[in-house]
Amino acid sequence: MVVVYLDVLFFLNLFMNYIILLMTARFSGIYARRRRLLVGALVGAVFSVVMFFSALHVVEALLFKVLLCAAVVVTAFGIRSWRETLRLCAAFLGITGAFAGLVYAINGAQALQNGSFYIDVSLKTLLLASGVAYLALSLIFGKGSMEIRRLTREVELEAEGNRVTIRALADSGNLLREPISGKKVLLVGAETLAPVLDRDTWRILCETRDPVERFSRLSAQRGTGFGMIPYRTCGEDGGMVVSLRHIAITVDSTRAEDYVVGVLPNEVETPDGCHAIIGM
Length: 280
Fold this sequence. Notes:
The strands form two sheets. A nine-stranded mixed beta sheet has the order 6-7-10-5-11-4-3-8-9. Strands 1-2 form a two-stranded antiparallel sheet. It is elongated and about 70 Å long. It is built from eight helices and eleven strands. The protein is 47% helix and 21% strand. The chain folds into two domains: 6-141; 152-279, no CATH class. A hairpin with a 7-residue loop joins strand 6 (226-231) and strand 7. By secondary structure, it is α+β, with helices and mostly antiparallel strands.
């Protein structure tokens, strides 16, 4: 007879769900706040405990798993199109299967109920399984290469009732911050901002690329809502970009209050269709 400890079952599932959600975000190229991933893992852990101790038939257990998967994905990554949600669910289930199989192969399962494993496993074993699963999935999704994948984010910009959606290259090396607020900076060109800017603001940004002149003219004509952000790149002298604080930013369907728009002198264009650079 196997003794199942409720706290062990809960925290084991919480840890595994969080690691799996991190991997799902990584390999799906989706930006997600760690706090939302933790809440999603918490939802999964609670439902896993309920499912473990419930007397369900095969069909009922299968339906419960489908609902659980959808609940965890929507909680962790937000409400998206049905295609995107289906893709995330498939990734989540695939990584879950790979992870559970590795843990089971390494340590074995002491109890099985409604498809839920109870494993008296050490943290060392869990970390080992996580590492092996991550490396294996990196080889599969990276086409045999261990090079870190370039991630992109879907960004929506909104100002004065106007919206535009663009793809942004997620750059972990972009540590740029607005001096006053400490917010991270979304770098984008003036042409890309045209759909959300009023005509006068857009005209000033297009007429000059000099950040000091841009800031002076914008402040004189439009008043507050603008700033200057200093930056420095490797091998080059420092410079400045103008920030636009009145533009609301949404990243992968989640409002990003900790970001501000920085206007570059030139447009951003990458082969994979990105028109902005976003810091991590």
